[in-house]
Design goal:
With 107 residues, the protein is of the alpha+beta class. It has two domains: 2-33, no CATH class; 43-106. The chain has three helices and three strands, in the order βββααα. It has helices at 35-38, 43-74, 79-106, and strands spanning 2-6, 11-21, 24-32. Strands 1-2-3 form a three-stranded antiparallel beta sheet, with no helix packed on it. A hairpin with a 4-residue loop joins β1 and β2. The longest helix has 32 residues, at 43-74. It is rod-shaped.
Length: 107
């Protein structure tokens, strides 16, 4: 919760906590709020989009590369590649669900 202070015509934001004084609850100013927290330029969402893309693509690419190497060694051309690709896809989807769950808890 932020509280607006208007003394000299400028706006200052404060974090507010509530304290109990003899049964009455009143706001108590603590430290000034960080202006970066008040205005969010949206870079957090850009980073989140990059994290989601990386978490989905990396397990699939690793599965493809490892599957190709194993197919060359074992002589089973598409089988190991497809199995490891789909395992990577499952890991990517579970990572996506974990990120969405963490974001929903933060809000």
């Amino acid at each position: 919760m932020t509280m607006n202070k208007q003394d000299s015509g400028e706006t200052e934001y404060y974090d507010v906590t509530l304290e109990d004084e003899e049964g009455n609850i009143r706001p108590r100013k603590t430290k000034p709020a960080d202006p970066k927290k008040v205005k969010d330029p949206g870079w957090r969402y850009v980073g989140l989009a990059g994290q989601i893309g990386f978490d989905i693509a990396l397990p699939m690419v690793v599965g493809l590369l490892a599957g190709t190497k194993l197919d060359d060694v074992w002589g089973t051309r598409p089988k190991a590649t497809l199995v490891l690709f789909f395992i990577g896809l499952v890991f990517g989807c579970t990572s996506l669900l974990r990120i969405v769950k963490e974001m929903s808890v933060k809000r």
